[in-house]
């Protein structure tokens, strides 16, 4: 009976580890391509660091009285790379392939598997070279934290609670981006072939790459409201980066309510993406029908 129940309820952790191992073996079969992709990704990231390093040679902070000084902003950049690299490594390659599975009928075979379809569609492949930016982000994070701790005025203190909260809110950011990506990929069922997924993804998530203060003036307030409370991509990096860098430590009137809303937004985003995905499966018709 136990063996029968085990076969009916697969171990999802073991299945994912198998997917990850198979993806690594496949990448190592084409090591030159793997190395080139990793170097290209790292080069782009390092050029961004160099650009902002030059910017901070001319100004002490990004915007007046925002709190985003040189190393606070580098923590923001590092957080962006950490979250985006996780999404691009584990979810982006599978979402891009989803529309092709619908067009060719490959989804038919996925639906026959004794495992949750969304899990299988989301995690079949791992793009290991994308994790190079994760390592670079961690390095920049450690460097920036050390600089903030050693500064002569108002040195910053790292505590285990801050580290824990940072990890939790990075996970919330990953959940929000994954949910958005799942909703976009699910539209392939109705559109037939969604080749603009990556472009649209880039346009939307581009707003999350900057501190939300830049949107809180003039007509930018509209963007701030839309991308904070409707499509909450501004929460993805801003909240964990603020918790770690504390650029606005004195302004607590909205900082923690925003953090609580981020957890709520992550949960609601995952539930909505689940609903959209299930609805797309109900609308799916086999390629042979």
What features would you describe in this structure?
- By secondary structure, the protein is mostly helical.
- The protein has one domain.
- 72% of the residues lie in helices and 0% in strands.
- The chain has 14 helices and no strands.
- α3 (31-55) runs antiparallel to α4, α4 (70-90) packs antiparallel against α8 (132-150) and α4 packs across α9 (160-186).
- It is globular.
- The chain starts with a helix and ends in a 6-residue tail after the last helix.
Question: What is the count of distinct domains?
Answer: 1
Q: Give the averaged pLDDT, no decimals.
A: 85
Range of strand content: under 5%
Give helix and strand order, one letter per element, not per position: HHHHHHHHHHHHHH
Structural class: mainly alpha
Shape: globular
Low-confidence stretches: 1-7
Spatial gap, N to C terminus: 38 Å
Largest sheet: none
Strand tally is 0
Rg, alpha carbons: 21 Å
Instruction: Kindly state the percentage of residues in helix.
Output: over 70%
List the total number of helices.
14
């Amino acid at each position: 009976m136990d063996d029968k129940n085990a076969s009916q309820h697969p171990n999802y952790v073991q299945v994912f580890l198998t997917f990850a191992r198979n993806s690594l073996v496949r990448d190592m079969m084409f090591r030159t391509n793997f190395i080139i992709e990793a170097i290209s990704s790292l080069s782009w990231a390092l050029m961004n660091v160099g650009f902002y390093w030059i910017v901070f040679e001319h100004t002490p902070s990004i915007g007046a009285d925002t709190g985003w000084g040189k190393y606070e902003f580098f923590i923001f950049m590092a957080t962006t790379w950490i979250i985006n690299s996780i999404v691009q490594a584990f979810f982006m390659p599978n979402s891009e392939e989803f529309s092709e599975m619908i067009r060719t009928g490959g989804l038919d075979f996925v639906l026959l598997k004794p495992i949750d379809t969304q899990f299988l569609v989301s995690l079949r492949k791992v793009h290991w070279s994308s994790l190079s930016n994760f390592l670079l982000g961690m390095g920049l994070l450690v460097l920036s934290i050390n600089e903030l701790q050693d500064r002569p005025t108002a040195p910053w203190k790292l505590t285990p609670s801050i580290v824990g909260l940072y990890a939790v809110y990075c996970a919330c950011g990953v959940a929000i981006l994954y949910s958005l990506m799942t909703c976009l990929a699910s539209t392939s069922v109705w559109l037939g072939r969604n080749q603009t997924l990556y472009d649209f993804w880039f346009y939307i998530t581009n707003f999350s790459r900057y501190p939300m203060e830049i949107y809180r003036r003039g007509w930018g307030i509209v963007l701030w409201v839309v991308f904070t409370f409707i499509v909450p991509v501004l929460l993805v990096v801003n909240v964990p980066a603020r918790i770690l860098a504390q650029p606005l430590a004195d302004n607590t009137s909205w900082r923690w309510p925003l953090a609580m809303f981020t957890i709520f937004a992550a949960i609601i985003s995952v539930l909505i993406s689940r609903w959209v995905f299930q609805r797309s499966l109900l609308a799916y018709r086999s390629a042979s029908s």
